[in-house]
Amino acid sequence: MVSTSDASASFTEALDDGLAKLVASLYEVPERFLPLLRREERRRRHRAIIGFGVAALSVAVLTSAIAIWGLIQRADAVSALKSALASRAQMSVRLSGEELQKKDPESALATALAGVDTRNMTEKDRAVITDSVTAIANSMANETFAGALRAHTDAVLKVFLGPGGRAAITVGADHKAILWNAESGLTLRPIRSVQLAESVFAVAQNKGLIAWGSRGGQVHFWNSSAPESSAGPFDLGETARMLAFSENGTLIAAIGTTGKLVVWDVTNNNSVWAAPNPIPAATMITFGTVCDCLIIGTLSGDLFVKPFGEMDSKMVYGASGKITNGSFGRNRQFLFTTDDGGLWLTSAPLWPAPVKIGQSDGSITGFAIAHNGRLAVTTSLGGVVQFWDVAKQAESKKFKPRLNTALTSVTFSSLGNAIALGYGDGAIAIWDIADAGADATETLVLTGHSRSVLDLSFSDDGASLASASLDNTVRLWQLQTAQRPTMKRAHRGAAFHANRRAEYISLLAVCPTRECRFGWSRYWIRVDPSTWKNNPRR
Question: Which of 150, 226, 408, 528 is such that its CA lies 20 to 30 A from the CA of 380?
Fold first, then answer.
């Protein structure tokens, strides 16, 4: 049986033999040259096949090269398109920020979303964007969040908000102090900064002046508004452990690691006073705001008072525990806290033995005195807020805003009618305390920080608030934009009927005391139900 390959080979040989004989007969080639002729014919055919193969391979290579070049060009085009879309989105965000500064949140949101609008987006999708603009803009119109300051690489320890909230100074655990400013209606931006040598620092807010110590024993100064006019350093002789500016920022007190105490005149660059003996147990230092004096707290609870202009210093004994904080209230009264939760009071210029006016529920984490000096507030690790009447030397209010949440900071507004509370979970609450005879009322809860709030600062007009956090950021809040609910606390029982009309809201309630209150949004009156019998329309 003959195979297919053998048959093909026989056919090829027969065809070659026939072609050779045909060529030999046409050109009268002798028969003895026929084998040579057949061999040349095979070579010619092989060369042709090889030529065709090479040409086909060249075409394939060229086609592949063109395809690869096309793919590269397509990838470059896609990359360029993505870059263009990213640039478009970034530009939309910038334009959106400008619109937001113009107090037009709807236009700001529409501008931002325009950066994601593409040709292949359906009309249905565009309608959703339009609806989102309307819905979110309504929410943004009442939003209090005004921006986040993100230039620190570690926790922000202190924040000082300038007049009208148009400037700020921040100091972080990254040993950096930053001046922020707002120009042409924009949000606060970092203007300049300085690297502190150590974590011990003091800030004279009214002058924008910052001081810090170095390991070489020098105390350095930085004028954030005009760095070139900063005062030169002075030599304390040892590493500073505590620093404090006087209220007007002209004097600074420095205590070194061995307790060496020096008071320095920043303006004239000379020493004002140096303690004859070290105070190694010092835990707190502050200048008097109502007396020309320096007050230093100690580990044992004693106060060291140095009146300037007098030769003798004074020691005030009687408090227990380490003194942690202190400030002046009304009538030259000096209030200070101790690490055992005590709140104590003494006064200048006689400095009698301190009186313990109250005990905090747990370790005190925050302490502040209202600008009029009549009210003080403390917060505790257990989440308790306590108000103290300085004149009566007694607790006036006490409440626990949230369960199982530590309070970490507190401050009064400039008008003294509200306080801001910072929580361990990053939340902030504004409480209205304007009515001395009523309970404090929570009016706003601000969320955004992811970790504990370490410091709070109101602007001088009370319209803005800055919060510093362990999450490395400072957040700004515009309190005047919030629409706060109006609450009428008229009853000691539950209200059971309310009615709204075009010009007023009426309310009727039944109380356990049989005394009800009825009224409308402009006027509220007290009504005795027993009088309704003969006058049902009253």
Answer: 150
- What kind and span of H or E run contains 92? helix 34-101
Per-residue pLDDT tens over the stretch 439-472 = 888 988 998 899 999 999 999 888 899 999 999 9
Residue 519 within any structural domain of the chain: yes
CA 183 to CA 376: how far, in whole Å? Answer: 36
Number of domains in the chain: 3
Smallest CA-to-CA distance from 340 within 316, 352, 356, 355 is with 356
Range of the domain at 97: 78-140
Do 48 and 102 have their domain in common? no
Residue 175 maps to a domain: no
The answer to whether residues 21 and 65 belong to one domain is yes
Cα separation of 267 and 250, whole Å? Answer: 6
Do 52 and 86 belong together in one domain? no
Q: Indicate the helix (H) or strand (E) that contains 388.
A: strand 385-389
Judge whether 91 lies within some domain: yes
Q: What is the separation of C-alpha 489 from the centre of its chain, rounded to a whole number of angstroms?
A: 35
For the chain, helix (H) and strand (E) counts, in that order, are 4, 36
Mean pLDDT score, 507-536: 44
453 within 8 A of 467, measured Cβ to Cβ: yes
Q: In what order do the strands lie in the sheet with 407-412?
A: 407-412, 418-423, 428-432, 441-446
Whether residues 67 and 12 share a domain: the answer is: yes
In whole angstroms, what is the distance from residue 40 CA to residue 521 CA? 118
Give the residue from 38, 71, 104 where a domain finishes.
71
433 token code pair = 């305390």
> What is d(CA 463, CA 479) in angstroms, rounded to the nearest whole number?
5
Note the pLDDT of residue 126: 55
The C-alpha atoms of residue 223 and residue 515 are separated, in whole angstroms, by 63
- DSSP state letter for 317: -
Look at residue 471 and tell me if it is in a domain: no
pLDDT at 209: 95
pTM over 0.85: no
Q: Which residues contact 127 (CB under 8 A, 6 or more apart)?
A: none
Last residue of a domain, one of 103, 125, 140: 140
Give Cβ neighbours of residue 447 (< 8 Å, ≥ 6 apart).
426, 427, 428
Could you tell me if 39 and 62 lie in one domain? Answer: yes
| 282-287, strands of its sheet edge to edge | 282-287, 293-298, 303-307, 314-316
The secondary structure of 398-435 as a DSSP string is: EE--STT--EEEEEE-TTSSEEEEEETTS-EEEEE---
Beta bridge partners of 203: 210
